[in-house]
């Protein structure tokens, strides 16, 4: 029998669907592949549609910074695949449904990795064609450091918020790009990042729905970003932590990338993500903090 579960249902009710045996892992993996293949695009064709002579200095700065930032995505995807598979083995006997969801997440990371590789290589190739400052081998190696492992729910929420930030930033880059081909590229990348955000929210919600993960993990990470001077403010915040373990792309903006904070828009999307993941509605950074404190018993 052909599986007829809608993709929107899989996104919003993943744990229930697997628990009720309405979808097998093979079914979920096919949906992942089908949607990935349907949304694929050609980096060669995208680059060919851009008039390099029409790219402004302003857009060049956005391109260069974005390509450099995308170097950090591969280690995030590599970590997710490894961590989700380890969690799958940990839950296999105690909660087989959760184990299946973890394996679906680990499997999907290959599509996330490939789609992000299109962003990275396309943007950096454009920088080369425009004779912008080369990204050194040392920088590539530094930016490829694998993030340290963390609780799985916290990891997924952090990745969802990272994709929210990327979606808003690329959407803005598209709105100001002067060349039609470049505008199309930025719009495509923004659409990809939005879909990645949706997947991370779906997997995070499934973890909370399993009752094995407390919503406090989601709010702890959100608070880290939305608090005054938090990670959401990127390299503009007063104190940027020095880390030897990994590189956060939002800490590494260079060349006066005139990117507006759009803090309210990003916060609004984070509040929406928290509601989808946990069922708890918040409308301000202060409410995020208070909810987090309530959940941890303070």
From TrEMBL:
Alphabetic keyword roster: Fatty acid biosynthesis, Fatty acid metabolism, Iron, Lipid biosynthesis, Lipid metabolism, Metal-binding, Oxidoreductase
Pfam families: FA_desaturase_2
Cofactor: Fe(2+)
Example of a GO MF term: stearoyl-[ACP] desaturase activity
SUPFAM superfamilies with a match to the protein in the record: Ferritin-like
InterPro entries the UniProt entry points to: Fatty_acid_desaturase-2 (IPR005067), Ferritin-like_SF (IPR009078), RNR-like (IPR012348)
Domain of life (superkingdom): Bacteria
BP term (GO), one: fatty acid biosynthetic process
Family: Belongs to the fatty acid desaturase type 2 family.
Protein name stated in the entry: Ferritin-like domain-containing protein
